[in-house]
């Protein structure tokens, strides 16, 4: 299959490109690394894709998207992530890179009708004390989350018009190549530097932390599945874990619990996310198999390896 991956220089996107290329697919990696929240990390990922896929630097909000529609499938992971950065001055860029870009991509795909996978987020649910199912009411609490709700509405409209679109709601993805602004990346880097871990709030917030390898598996299964247009699937490990408990696990891996420095909670940040992934199990045969201890060990090893490579490169 010829598969386009947007957001290919990102955390998840770079892993998806790797997996597709390894499976023998012809991959076109599309991104605009200079527009990333963390350009250095995106440029590193982008360079690493050079021997795995054809690459196209493209701004989905303004450029001609016809080259992306000429594919068997489009995995649309591009966007401006993050609840924290979507407030104030960040609202307009989030609207541009999430809503406008997705609208233009879906319009570009309307004639050729490739299978399209659209990335959404658990943030569309807001905070819930029970497992969230795909048919539950949505309660976005930030501009970022509201933008993802609009992205899903655009996907639903495109599906009614005949485009085979599947929406994946990702839950707290972590693992190697995680963005520097994300929690486990910040925690691990602080711990390795001997600094207190910067924790928003009191650490009692809980998440369905989902390892990137499991998320990639679900994404590839969705790209290959003949699902009804407009299908929405939760992609998350159905086991909420508090930030405190995650830090305890990290401390065990490090040989001692690190100190913590509390910070003000982020407006719009959910107190709990809790995935019911039963629909993905039924339709894709998928479950998240990586436990948090195993996944954190994997990410910690990546951070340590990255530091070794940086030291060797600087020598």
Helix share, percent = 40-55%
Number of β-strand runs: 13
Uncertain runs: none
Query: What separation lies between the terminal Cα atoms?
Result: 42 Å
Number of DSSP helical runs:
10
Rounded to an integer, what's the Rg over CA atoms? 19 Å
Task: Give the CATH H-level superfamily of the domain at 2-171 and 211-237 and 275-288.
Answer: NAD(P)-binding Rossmann-like Domain
Quickly name the level 1 CATH class of the domain at 2-171 and 211-237 and 275-288. Alpha Beta
- From the helix content, strand content and strand pairing, which structural class follows? alpha/beta
Gross CATH architecture of the domain at 2-171 and 211-237 and 275-288: 3-Layer(aba) Sandwich
| Arithmetic mean of pLDDT | 96
Largest sheet: 7 strands, parallel
- Taken from the alpha-carbon principal axes, the silhouette is globular
Strand order, sheet with most strands: 3-2-1-4-5-6-11
Which fold name corresponds to the CATH topology of the domain at 2-171 and 211-237 and 275-288? Answer: Rossmann fold
- What is the beta-strand fraction? 15-25%
Order of helices and strands: EHEHEHEHEHEEHEEEHEEHEHH
């Amino acid at each position: 299959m010829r598969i386009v991956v947007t957001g290919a220089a990102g955390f998840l996107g770079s892993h998806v490109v790797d997996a597709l290329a390894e499976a023998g697919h012809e991959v076109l990696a599309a991104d605009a690394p200079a527009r990333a929240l963390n350009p250095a990390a995106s440029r590193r990922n982008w360079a690493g894709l050079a021997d795995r896929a054809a690459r196209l630097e493209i701004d989905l909000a303004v450029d001609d998207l016809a080259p992306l529609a000429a594919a068997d499938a489009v995995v649309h992971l591009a966007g401006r992530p993050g609840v924290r950065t979507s407030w104030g001055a960040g609202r307009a860029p989030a609207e541009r890179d999430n809503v406008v870009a997705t609208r233009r991509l879906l319009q570009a795909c309307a004639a050729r009708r490739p299978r399209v996978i659209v990335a959404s987020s658990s943030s569309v649910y807001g905070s819930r004390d029970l497992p969230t199912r795909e048919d539950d009411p949505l309660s976005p609490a930030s501009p970022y989350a509201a933008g993802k709700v609009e992205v899903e509405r655009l996907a639903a409209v495109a599906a009614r018009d005949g485009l085979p679109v599947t929406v994946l709601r990702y839950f707290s993805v972590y693992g190697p190549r995680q963005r520097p602004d994300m929690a486990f990346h910040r925690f691990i880097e602080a711990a390795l530097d001997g600094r207190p871990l910067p924790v928003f709030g009191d650490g009692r917030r809980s998440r369905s932390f989902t390892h990137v390898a499991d998320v990639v598996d679900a994404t590839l299964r969705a790209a290959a599945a003949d699902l009804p247009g407009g299908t929405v699937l939760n992609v998350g490990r159905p086991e909420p874990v508090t930030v405190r408990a995650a830090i305890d696990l990290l401390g065990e891996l490090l040989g001692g619990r690190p100190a913590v420095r509390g910070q003000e909670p982020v407006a719009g940040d959910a107190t709990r996310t809790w995935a019911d992934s039963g629909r993905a199990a039924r339709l894709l045969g998928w479950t998240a198999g990586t436990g948090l201890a195993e996944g954190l060990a994997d990410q910690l090893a990546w951070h340590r390896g990255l530091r070794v490579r940086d030291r060797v490169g600087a020598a």
